[in-house]
Amino acid sequence: MRYMWEGRFKEKVDVDIIEFTKSINVDKKLAIYDIEGSIAHVKMLFKVGLITEEEKEKIIRGLENIKKEIKENKFKFLPSDEDIHTAIERRLIEIIGKIGEKLHTARSRNDQIVLDEKLFLRDEVIYLVKLIIDLQKRFLEKSEEYFDTVISAYTHLKQSQPILLSHYLLAYVEKLERDRERFMDTYKRINIFPLGVGACAGTSLPIDRAYTAKLLNFSEISRNSLDTVSDRDFLLEITFCCILTMIHLSSFSQDIIIWNMDEINFVKLPDKYCTGSSLMPHKKNPDVFELIRGKTAVCTGLLNGLLVLLKDLPLSYNRDIQEDKKILFEILKTVEATLKILIKILSEIKFNKEIIIEKISSFTLSVDIVEYLVKKGIPFREAHSIVGNIVKYCIEKNKTFFNLTLNEFKSFSPIFEKDILQILNFKNSVNSKISGGGTSSINVKKEIERWKKKLKKSWNLIINLEKEVSILKK
Ligand code: ARG
């Protein structure tokens, strides 16, 4: 018999059907998690009396052997291996004989695959969160390095108001923090133990799910067998977390691409992180950042694929779900690679401070002038209109705010005094933004210090979790 389910079949299954339905090439990535899950399962089978101690020892030794083969890349997959679960069971029976046939007692591949995915994803979340914190640290370091640099903020890609470049960089620390939190929140739902619900209904065998769950460090046990074998919410959530992280990194990449334009030249990218042209010898292109944008687009499409995959499924398990892993693995691979590359580049990126400050238009101080008038009692709407007229005047006369005389200011409103000159200064403008979340040096400095502490805390937290649950690190 070639397939463990072939008992009820009169004919041999068609080879093309075998090829079409097998998933081994994708799910072999889960091998060590499958084995770890099986070891815990076997311990439970012994505890409740479904196998003897000797059988338990033999099966576990066999599984440890297979784990070694997998880790050393010596495991031989056979063309007849349908998926990772059956490949490992097949090998176990080869090594230890008939006793290996007891491994699958009180278990279905429908609950087994959910366990494998969850064990794998716990490690993945830990890995990704570590990368995210690492990248946050790089943004934070740059933010300290460029603490004194003033740049224009942009809205609609038009110069808006002066800010600290540090403030810009800290915006990404914030975005990544939400990403980190989202991953950790998803972790809670990943960390619900699925094994023991069988194919869809539970089992009459006297299993102890709580025991297996404890062995595998799960904090909760799933409560409905139908829901458990069909639930892929956690997978959808984790892929969404990945895509949103990618979207943040893609938006940062977009700024870098623009800042790297010859006409703008705000940023100095190290040669080693750029690529050249096969035709134009002078070119040094920001292809990495363009590819981050591009890969984000592809991943977004994949996420949509997963949503559509799940949307029509009747309860409970359906084979369609098997396609989830292709999507998951591709997205994880991309987000990991992107985070790693940005961690590298961020540590070495340089900003052209002089060009950045030179390019700020005096008009970015328009709101400061409005607020100057408001502080002197002019209603906001009137102040807005006065400053609008000054801008119009400057454009007509080809002037900036900086070359206007006090008399010229006074011709728009008698309220203007000598102190307006204090206002016409980018640094002063920045430092006046002391409202919560504003770009003043005082605020930004405080934020930098807060982040230093917070990132240290997040790091310790994730390292402790890793020590506690990681299967990869074992
Ligand atoms: N390979 C399947 C998956 O990834 C698990 C096996 C379930 N197979 C089955 N015939 N019920 O979801």
Summarize the structure.
By secondary structure, this protein is mainly α. The protein has helices at residues 15-21, 24-27, 31-47, 53-71, 84-96, 109-145, 165-190, 209-215, 225-230, 233-259, 287-311, 324-348, 353-358, 366-375, 380-397, 406-412, 420-423, 426-431, 441-469, and strands spanning 150-155, 158-164, 192-193, 220-221, 267-268, 350-351.
How are the strands of the largest sheet arranged? 1-2
Q: Give the number of helices.
A: 19
**What fraction, in percent, of the residue positions are helical?**
55-70%
Mean pLDDT over the full residue set? 97
Largest sheet: 2 strands, antiparallel
What is the strand content? Answer: under 5%
> Would you report the number of β strands?
6
- Terminal residue distance: 36 Å
Structural key phrases:
mainly alpha, 19 helices, binds arginine, two-stranded antiparallel ribbon, 62% helix, two-stranded parallel ribbon, 474 residues, elongated, 6 strands
Describe the structure.
- The chain is elongated, with a radius of gyration of 30 Å.
- The model has no long low-confidence stretch (mean pLDDT 97).
- Helices cover 62% and strands 4% of the residues.
- It is built from 19 helices and 6 strands.
- With 474 residues, the chain is mostly helical.
- The structure holds arginine.
- The site of arginine has 9 residues, from helix 6.
- The site of arginine (ARG) has 9 residues, from helix 6.
SSE arrangement:
Blueprint: H1 15-21, H2 24-27, H3 31-47, H4 53-71, H5 84-96, H6 109-145, E1 150-155, E2 158-164, H7 165-190, E3 192-193, H8 209-215, E4 220-221, H9 225-230, H10 233-259, E5 267-268, H11 287-311, H12 324-348, E6 350-351, H13 353-358, H14 366-375, H15 380-397, H16 406-412, H17 420-423, H18 426-431, H19 441-469
The structure holds arginine.
Arginine binds at residues 23, 83, 109-110, 113, 317, 319, 321-322.
